[in-house]
Write a structure and sequence with these properties.
CATH superfamily: Aldolase class I
Mean pLDDT: 89
Strand content: 5-15%
CATH architecture: Alpha-Beta Barrel
Structural class: alpha/beta
Largest sheet: 4 strands, mixed
CATH class: Alpha Beta
Strand order of the largest sheet: 9-1-10-11
Oligomer: single chain
Order of helices and strands: HHHEEHEHEHHEHHEHEHHEHHEHHEEH
Number of helices: 17
Number of domains: 1
Length: 404
């Protein structure tokens, strides 16, 4: 019978998807060009169900950003999070402040610390290694996903070490996986427009290859919706797929929607509010699933594209909704108006409401908990219940004022 598509250009692609054949870059360009969003979604849904069935994964995670001070403050024109050392709002957490913030893990089902931040000019590798060891000692049940390839390269530069040695030191101090940030879009022209001093594509890919070769799993991303072309997007995805062929280690692909508020690029482009459309957000999820046939999972980042669109993405090839995300700062600095966290119970019901089977996972996608139909957590909350999904933690109370 075949998968139903209305755009004739998708018919040969549909045949490939049904047969489990790899899509070409020209196929991916045709997918970005199509207006048949429902046909595209049906193809991606088919491909995802073949891999993951109706399971939708999530993590009980907590985001920790030790500093927003960054040497690339004036260079990364798309970033709203970074600050110069003496700029208003600049901060650096002491280790004790980081540990205090992490104490939420004692009173919640937190299973992962997600740690990224700015490239502080004076922070040495030992600060991070002490942090990882201290977190592991205090919370041995919590896995650590930490430091983008850009941060790893910066620490290697400061310490005059190889990036391999930095990764080994991180692994030995308790880091389990690496996040996928800092990739942006690999095209040379795009990187020149966004951040010409940032880690180049070859080095980003090399550091992830090094991590994979030492049996550290990582994630990968693409920041879309700014100055890139569709060919730039496809080229980026092709490089991710090629690295996964060569050195398997990517667990998840996460398309990241650009937010234009409070950054130089948004001012240049004359944009405010949401830079991408829901149509494009769903396309990026679906095409990621179809083209990246060797990466097992595709994640929607609900704080960035809203929980509502993330539910729809579960029919467009997505099998991971991120997590509880306590406490998201980076995209809220760029104008995101979504909640800064989602309560564990709410997240489970959010997945089940989309007709999917929620699965709590760890950082390596090991199943930690499933939810049968009679699980009490699936019962609808009463109108009198509090709704922690909307809560925003008082960061000053939580970790103090910090220092630059």
């Amino acid at each position: 019978m075949g998968i139903s598509v209305s755009d004739p250009a998708l018919t040969p692609i549909s045949a490939k998807v049904e047969a489990g054949e790899r899509l070409s870059s020209d196929d991916a360009l045709a997918l970005f060009d199509t207006a048949d969003l429902l046909g595209l979604g049906a193809l991606a849904h088919f491909a995802n169900r073949r891999l993951n069935g109706d399971r939708v994964f999530f993590s009980a995670n907590q985001h920790i950003n030790p500093t927003n001070v960054c040497i690339l403050r004036k260079n990364c024109v798309f970033c709203s999070f970074a600050r110069s050392p003496k700029e208003e709002g600049a901060y650096l957490r002491s280790l004790e402040e980081v540990y205090h913030e992490a104490e939420a893990a004692r009173n919640s089902p937190t299973r992962e610390f997600h740690i990224v931040g700015g490239l502080h000019p004076k922070l040495r590798l030992e600060y991070y290694l002490d942090m990882f060891r201290g977190l592991k000692e205090r919370h041995p049940h919590v896995q650590i996903k930490a430091l983008t390839a850009v941060e790893v390269a910066n620490l290697a530069r400061i310490e005059k070490m190889s990036t391999v040695d930095v990764l080994l030191a991180m692994r030995d101090s308790g880091v389990d996986t690496l996040p996928g940030g800092g990739a942006e879009v690999f095209g040379v022209g795009v990187r020149a427009a966004l951040a010409d001093r940032k880690l180049i594509a070859d080095d980003w890919l090399r550091i992830h290859r090094e991590a994979h070769d030492m049996d550290m799993f990582t994630n990968c991303t693409m920041l879309y919706g700014h100055v890139e072309t569709m060919a730039d997007r496809v080229g980026h995805l092709a490089m991710l797929r090629a690295l996964q062929d060569e050195s398997p280690g990517f667990l998840t692909y996460i398309p990241l929607a650009y937010h234009p508020d409070h950054n130089e690029l948004g001012e240049r482009l004359g944009r405010t509010g949401t830079a991408t459309t829901g149509f494009d957000d769903l396309k990026n999820i679906a095409i990621g699933r179809l083209f990246l046939d060797n990466i097992p999972h595709v994640k929607t980042h609900w704080p960035m594209v809203t929980p509502f669109l993330s539910q729809i993405a579960l029919e467009f090839g997505c099998d991971d909704v991120e997590g509880t995300v306590v406490y998201e700062r980076i995209y809220h600095e760029a104008g995101a108006e979504t909640p800064m966290m989602m309560a564990y119970d709410d997240l489970v019901r959010f997945i089940r409401a989309a007709g999917k089977d929620p699965v709590e996972r760890d950082s390596l996608y090991k199943t930690l908990r499933t939810f049968p139909d009679d699980d009490p957590i699936l019962a609808a909350p009463s109108a009198a219940d509090d709704h922690p999904t909307q809560a925003t933690p008082d960061l000053t109370r939580l970790v103090g004022t910090g220092r630059a």
